[in-house]
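User: I'm designing a mutation panel for Metal ABC transporter ATP-binding protein and want to avoid disrupting the core. Could you give me a predicted structure to guide residue selection? Please restate the sequence first so the numbering is unambiguous.

Assistant: Good idea. Sequence first, for numbering, then the predicted structure tokens:
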Amino acid sequence: MEFFSIKNLNYSYNKECVLKNINLTYNNQDFLSIIGPNGAGKSTLIKLILGLLNSHNSITFKQIKKTEIGYVPQHTLANPNFNPRVLEIVLMGLINKKKFGFYKQEDKNKALEALKKVQMQDFWNKKINQLSGGQRQRVFIARALVDECKMLILDEPTASVDSKSAIQIFELLKSLHEKGIGILLVCHDINLVLAYSDKIAHLNKELFLHSNQKEKKKNDFLKHLYENHSHFCDVEMSLNSCLCNHKCKDENLKTTVSF
């Protein structure tokens, strides 16, 4: 199902070109990752899709409305003294639905359901600062999902978490995508991008779109690292090699990840 298309999009800040002749069609069957160097225009492109910046009619929405897109920004807790409960964080995704300054029970039920989708329902009454980085990111994903979301756009969802939590987050996004949620994200980790993405867009002012035959072995290997090793990092992930290397190369290796 085609969600939106971008045609001949150009964008400048103070007459400095940031995006040049961008063309992109997004279908919700695609798990799309955007890669590129710092300052390449990735966050700007996301803001244009979300309508936070004016695209001058270069973006056409088809089977989705902007209000049906959930957004997870890179930095989500700017004030370290702001320490609400998990449920309160998710309810912020329904802030426009408040009546007379209060949330209805129906809203709270929606928030709990969103937490269930990201396997965080048991943490609903915890303070957000009591959670790990990976757990927090799942809560922010729940906040984006809570209001009739058909698509998620995420800006560096694994930037502030360790390798194990990063795989958890990508496994979660993969499961949401398999249920019909569109996924578009910015990510610098090429190992995760190659393992999970159907389409990869390289952006550096200009955009070049690549189809990716997802590396099934790499996907299985990353899950193997998550389940069986107390330590792993970018070295193991890049080399596809670990201390039990003979097992990791087994084409029949099957693993599951529990959250």
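For picking mutation sites, this is relevant: The longest strand covers residues 2-13. The longest helix spans residues 163-178.
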